Amino acid sequence: MVAELARHTVLPVSAQPNAGLPRRVHGRRFEYHIDGDYFARYARRYAEAGASLIGGCCGTTPTHLRAAVEQTAALRPPQPRHTASRTAAAPEQGGLAERLARGRFVIAAEIAPPAGGAGDEAVDAAEALRDRGIEQFLVSPRQSARAHLSSVNLALQLRQRLGAEAIATVTTWDKTIMALQADLLGAHALGMRTVVCATGNPPLRGDYPNVDGIWEVDSVGLVELLAGLNQGRDSDGLTLATKTSFHIGAWFNPGAPDVAAEVARTRAKLRAGAQFLITRPVYELDTFRRMAAELAADQVPVLLALAPLRSFDEAEFLAHEVPGVTIPEATLRALERAGDGAAVVGLDLAAELAGQARSLAQGVILACDGDIVAVERLRQAL
Question: pTM of the full predicted structure?
Answer without folding.
Answer: 0.76
